[in-house]
Amino acid sequence: MKFHNGKYYNRIVFVLLLIAVSDVHANLNVFACEPEWAAMAKELGGDRLTIYSATTSMQDPHHIQARPSLIAKARSADLLVCSGAELETGWLPLLLRKSGNANIQQNQPGNFAAADHVEKHDVPKTLDRSMGDVHAEGNPHIHTSPENILLVAAALSKRLSEIDVDNEEYYSTRYSVFESQWKVLMAKWKQQVKVLQGVNIVTHHNYWTYLNRWIGLNVLATLEPIPGVSPSSSYLAKLKKQLSQQEIKMIIHVSYVSDRPSQWLSEQTGAPVIALPATVDYQDGQTLSLWFDGVIQQLVSVKR
Amino acid sequence: MKISFLQSSVICVLCAQSIVAAGATDEELNKQLETLEQRLVAVEKQAEDNSENALSVKQSAHQASSNSFNPAISVILEGVYASYKNDPENYELPGYALGGEAGLAPEGFSLGHSEIILSNNIDDKFYGQFTLAIADHDGETVVELEEAFFETLSLGYGFTVRGGRFYSGIGYLNQQHQHAWDFYDAPLIYRGLFGEQYLDDGLRMSYVAPTDLYLELGTEVFAGGKYPAGGKHSGTGSWTAFLNVGGDVGVSHSWQSGVSYWSADNIEREYGGHDHGGVGEVPLFEGDSDIVGFNAVYKWAPNGNYLDQNVKLQFEYFSRDEQGALTLLNSSPLETSTLNSRQDGWYAQAVWQFVRTWSVGVRYDMVDSDNTGSDDSVLGEAGLLTAGHMPERASLMAEWMPSEYSRIRVQYNRDDSYQKTDDQVYLQYTFSMGAHGAHQY
Predict the structure, then answer these.
(1) Which architecture, in CATH terms, is A6-189?
(2) Which of A63, A169, A256 sits opposite B306 (nearest CB)?
(3) I want to staple B260 with a disulfide (CB 3.0 to 4.6 A). Which of A194, B38, B193, B293 is the partner?
């Protein structure tokens, strides 16, 4: 191949031009670590964003493999939207390093951690591996509170405008619409969950901490002896004894974990088991509000 | 870019439309917006006392303590109890002269590589990693600098440069620390070609293509002082090139496959000592060497949840060509021979983690060789003749993982490396303390 050959030269120029042109009109590539942030990005960025969700609602975001497909997606991302608070610590750092993508590295505008924008609970006073899957920064499942959703959406909208200045008005308009809708829904949900205030529940993992606090549910115990560790039968027996004085109204677990411990306690106590979808089924086109509404209705229906 | 009032109102309507009700007419849309506004006013009044307070939560500031800038530290504790039918001191791999760290663990209790790994982002442009291995060699405890490298974070466009001492990117297993392997010992072909694992001091440049299919190209230049290269080189002693591709099939299946190439010229490679009462005769290879390799990995986990159940299939093949001269150092008179060598081998393994805390695995290994030279006795002394025996090995493994940080493994090998079949049993523990870095795919 000779480079001064006119035909080749023209072809190269054509390809370069094609790349340049396609780049100008390219959407912002958003890499969402969890489906809830993909759904939020869709609300706030509409058709200006090309969104990829690294996980599904049936996956435990603590334990994801740094798969080649994820590295490839991280390579082309303009903005990373993740929970943060060490939720993705087992896989995200490796994706960042292997991606060769400067935009999404830590502390870059293209690296957005939702947990940085809300107040976190369950912050451990001391850290020790014998405590199980504890996160130094606190409970990372912040998306389970509708108030947190609004706080994160405000910050994410701002971030979108910073990265994609040309579409600033578009993003802020969409945020205003989202905000007003969400506030209406939040008031509705708040009204609906009044009946759940002070109700005794048992949860499998401390996944719903933020929602429980928002509703005012009274969590008697978690089935996991320590976060991330499945309960043994002897531990469950101990737990049952410990809980024998109180009336449990329901037992909650996320749908991606085994329901066996929950079912066992249900048989012993008669309290119903509720498998709540951990997050938005983004891949099937669900929205944040539909998911949340579903969770609230599931909880309320048990009380009725 | 300035947006006129008209434009912004169009944008507003467009986005409201897409959220509220795709396909609704303007009139309906206006009505919806109106009622929305009315409800909003009511809601805001009603919820002023509670929700406003909650919504004004300040951003959580990251608290900095005196040690929060320390690198992430992890310590790997590893030990093994080994049992053999044959004497492990007599281990050999016909067709391959062994060097590097190739060999069997001593009979009974011994520590493997205890490791201390420090890693951190150095600043916004660089990442650094430092791995010290403390191991026993011939009854002496030695500290080995296993890895000490920096890596760029900010080149962008898919490029990353790594420099220092690191495991080469060739092959699949080679880049992983031994404690991340699924079997206690290295495949025979790794033992034969690389002396367990290949690392050296040098520079790597890698590129990830902006495609949905994972495509990584990389090349490395090394000083060439480490086995299986060797000797002093003023510039580059060895170099590599590799290509990896990978992706997902649905949500439960994923795969990766790669080809790699290693080349070193003007090698001066000394093999492990071969005692003949008193002065040891040490085979020395001088010449050129090329290795090509292929690997493929497939993983399955229901819904992509690897924690509770997964299957991993893994295959690697390597082939090496060498031309040069072989000398038996310390022999008198000095014995030498020309050497024309071709060695290849492969392993295939399957590991099934059937519950969160248990997995079982099976592996089969084999290596082959075709070595010729001007003096067969020299080749024989160096262990390069096979006498018609083709080394192979079959392994079974079971491991118990009470948590992500601890693992107890038992492994059985039926080892036909050399003519006398060996039964090998390993009972191994691996514990990881402190920060737990992400594992490679």
Answers:
(1) 3-Layer(aba) Sandwich (3.40)
(2) A63
(3) B293
Asked if residue B76 and residue B40 are part of one domain, the reply reads: no
What is the number of structural domains in chain B?
2
Residue B135, domain member (yes or no): yes
What is the DSSP secondary-structure string of A169-192? HHHHHHHHHHHHHHHHHHHHHHHH
C-beta of residue B295 within 8 angstroms of C-beta of residue B258: yes
Are A76 and B254 an interchain contact pair (Cβ–Cβ within 8 Å)? no
Question: Does the distance separating the beta carbons of A67 and B437 come in below 8 Å?
Answer: no
Do B42 and B83 sit in the same domain of this protein?
no
Chosen domain end from B48, B64, B80:
B48
Residue B362's contacts (CB-CB under 8 Å, 6 or more residues apart) are B349, B350, B394, B395, B396, B397
Distance from CA of A266 to the nearest CA of B (A): 23
What are the helix and strand counts (H, E) for chain B? Answer: 5, 18
Query: Are B160 and A65 inside 8 Å of each other by CB?
Result: no
- The range of the structural domain enclosing residue B310 comes to 72-434
Q: Which of residues 133-152 of A touch B (CB under 8 A)?
A: 147, 150-151
Cα(A200)–Cα(A250) distance, integer angstroms? 7
Local confidence pLDDT in tens for the 304 residues of chain A: 444 556 677 777 776 666 555 555 579 999 999 999 999 999 999 999 999 999 999 999 999 999 999 999 999 999 999 999 999 999 999 999 999 999 999 999 999 999 999 999 988 877 777 777 777 888 999 999 999 999 999 999 999 999 999 999 999 999 999 999 999 999 999 999 999 999 999 999 889 999 999 999 999 999 998 887 888 888 988 988 888 888 899 999 998 888 899 999 999 889 999 999 999 999 999 999 999 999 999 999 987 6
